[in-house]
Amino acid sequence: MADLILLVGNPNAGKSALFNRLTHGHARVGNWHGVTVDAAEKNFSVGGKEVTLVDLPGIYSDEGRSMEEKFACRYIAERPDAALVFVSECAGAERVLPLMHALTKGGRRCMLVFTKRKRFEREGGSLDRAAIEKALGVPVLFAESDLSSPIANMLVSPPREVPVSDMGASFTPVREGLSRLDRVLLNPFFGPVIFLSLLLLAFFLTFRTGMPGDLMKSGVEWFFSRFLGGFAEKISSPVVRSLVQDGILASLGSVLSILPQIALLHLFLILLEESGLMSRLAILADGTLSLFGLSGKAVFPLLMGFGCTSAAVLTTRGLDDERMQRRVIACLPYLSCSAKLPVYLALAGSIFADPFPAVLLLYVLGMGMAFVVALFLRGKTSPAIMELAPLQIPTVRFVAKSLLFQIKQFIIKVATVVLAFFLASWLLSSFDFTFRLCAVEDSMLAAVCGWLSFLFAPAGMRDWRITYAAISGLIAKENVAGAIAMFFGTFPYGAESAFAFAVFILACSPCISAIVSTAKEIGAPRALLYAAVQTVTALLLCYLVYFCLTGGIVFLAGATVLLFALFLLRYESVHRNRKHHSERVHRRPLSAGVDVSARPPQSARGAGQRRKDGRRSSAAGG
Fold first, then answer.
1. Domain boundary among 517, 547, 577
2. Do 149 and 194 lie in a common domain?
3. CA 170, CA 90: separation in Å to the nearest integer?
4. Is the pTM of this model over 0.85?
């Protein structure tokens, strides 16, 4: 059995980067809290021996506060024979000592690795590695040095307990405090303006006509429709030509054409994460999110939701408790992930020459829905404790590597799951039950799915193909755009139906992979319940949007005004009747001959008021 080595340390200390370097792996790294939320394992050879290295979520103590920290602490406690490699950035050297002492009680094979040395020394800090090694009695190294031999020696060394110690003169910390740039970014006025401007700039460059995203999208569309489509026209066999044109080029082309725009959105998220702006946005948004029952830590999964809902669900382990995790998971499906982007562009491009305003509106609408859900599920929140990641300029190599990984994942998904669905759809929609090539209305798919046409009839789309496209989105949202391109080319209904259908795609259940991730975090029954409620609600919203856009909004506004007017009239009538009635009741005893002297004495103020208008005094005198 291979020896087990656990990477342990504070969040954002560089554990995942060290894991990738030692194992040549591709674990996700980032300059913000909550990047690693599970145990990543990989084998590698050191000193001619097979070793299993495990990258754990960051922890601050041996007890843990958030769910990911508690998971890491349990993982360490359940493996007392595993060796520990403590990873600490140089600036946080003093914080790692209590953690080392707590986790090595009773004896552990361990070593300490310091990261981010150059930045630490550039900011004026100093660290005497040899002196710290002598004080602790365990190997202490810098991350850039060769770790193979020290790790091999650690595995054969006897377990030991790291003593309670301090750095003393061997450590000179950097000067604490916020920089001028941090004061601007964390300013309650300038901070939101800056982050909102960056977000709008990213959307403008991605979706606006004539901008880089639109130009690259047009290039990919030309490649599929004109270049490859020209070759497909020359195929003599009608079956093969239909397969290539309708089953592959039309569907895959519609999905892959938005790859440049997806890449630009991922580039924006990578730059936001790696530059350190993500943690500042989380701190800035903590107060606002608390109004909706969320903490600042929710910024990380919420922003990741614009990339991939499934990945965002997994990062919710970085939140403090399960109730907060459930609230954030319930919000995530309403944020427009990159898989919904092809559908938005297919629908908006069929109606508008410039789809930028429509796509931007859908993204904003999704964020509004997410916050409404959070407000509905609002509960108690605890103050967020987060580490402010250092500001830095992301390296070109890291950004390129991360971006290429995201592009590769998208292409693999399109070339496997999405392509298989397109081919199955083409086969079922091109042949009848005798396997003869036929029109789509006479196909096997039409016969099986014809009864589904009623679902979107209230939204002006009584067509089983629209329903089939919508249901295909439960497998992968990219399927919707491909199905529309395969069956229609462009969306055949009006702008009202297009927007209503886009709202359904926006609000319905996420893809299967996201549902599986949700089940893994909060249980299968709750995950299926969330998916069912979201889909039914999305269908009702689709009907409501179409009703409002086709004149229903005028009816609703008129009905609201009429009801308000009737309420005011009723209120005024009741108010007047009560006033008149009270006056008549007050006068009735006098006309009936009741002895006035038997009444309770009047207050001085009341008597004065009655004498002032004269009416009551004359009545009494009479």
1. 547
2. no
3. 12
4. no
Pick from 125, 119, 88, 122: which is nearest to 103 by CA?
A: 88
Among the listed residues 405, 424, 556, the one whose alpha carbon sits nearest the alpha carbon of residue 482: 424
Structural tokens at position 514: 């996201």
* Those residues with Cβ within 8 angstroms of residue 222's Cβ, 6 or more apart along the chain or in another chain: none
Distance separating the N- and C-terminal Cα atoms of the chain:
114
Domain shared by 63 and 116, yes or no:
yes
Q: Is residue 557 part of a domain?
A: no
User: Could you give the angle at the alpha carbon of 598 between the alpha carbons of 597 and 601, nearest 5°?
Assistant: 75
Q: Does residue 257 share a domain with residue 212?
A: yes
Is the same domain home to 267 and 298? yes
Task: Quote the DSSP letter at residue 28.
Answer: -
Residue entry with tokens 């693999």:
412
CA distances from 340 to 70, 84, 259 (A): 34, 43, 12
With left for phi above 0 and alpha for psi between -120 and 50, is residue 40 left, alpha or beta?
beta
DSSP for 236-292, written as a single string: --HHHHHIIIIIIIHHHHHHHTTHHHHHHHHHHHHHHHHTTHHHHHHHHHHHHHHTT
One domain, residues 163 and 241: no
Q: Is residue 182 situated within a structural domain?
A: no
Same domain, 97 and 210: no
Report yes or no: 141 and 151 within 8 Å, Cβ to Cβ. Answer: no
Q: Residues 238, 160: one domain?
A: no
Contact between 31 and 278 under an 8 Å Cβ cutoff? The reply is yes
DSSP 146: -
Cα radius of gyration (the chain) = 33
Going by the DSSP 8-state scheme, the letter that residue 353 receives in this structure is S
**E-assigned strand segments in 32-143:** 40-46, 49-55, 83-89, 110-115, 126-127, 140-142
Residue 621 domain flag: no
The answer to the question of residue 40 being in a domain is yes
- CATH code of the domain containing 84: 3.40.50.300
Which residue range is the domain that position 101 belongs to? 3-172
- Nearest Cα neighbor of 271 from 202, 367, 360, 182 is 202
Q: What SS3 state is found at 8?
A: strand
Structure tokens at 594: 């009741």
Boundary residue ending a domain (510, 526, 547): 547
| pLDDT single digits (tens) 487-522 | 888 888 989 999 999 999 999 999 888 998 899 889
Residue 310 near residue 514, CB atoms below 8 Å: yes
| Closest to 299 (Cα-Cα) out of 190, 386, 380 | 386
CB–CB of 211/205 below 8 Å?
A: yes
- The domain tally of the chain equals 2
Same-domain pairing of 246 and 275: yes
**pLDDT (tens digit per residue) in 156-201:** 888 888 888 777 778 888 877 778 888 888 888 888 899 889 988 9
Task: Convert the pLDDT of each residue in 37-95 to its tens digit.
Answer: 677 888 888 877 888 999 988 888 888 777 888 888 999 999 999 999 999 999 888 88
Distance CA 161, CA 550 (A): 74
pLDDT tens-digit map of 379-425: 776 666 677 777 888 888 888 988 888 888 888 887 787 888 888 88
Length of the chain: 622
Structure tokens at 327: 């609230």
Tokens 């109606």, residue? Answer: 351
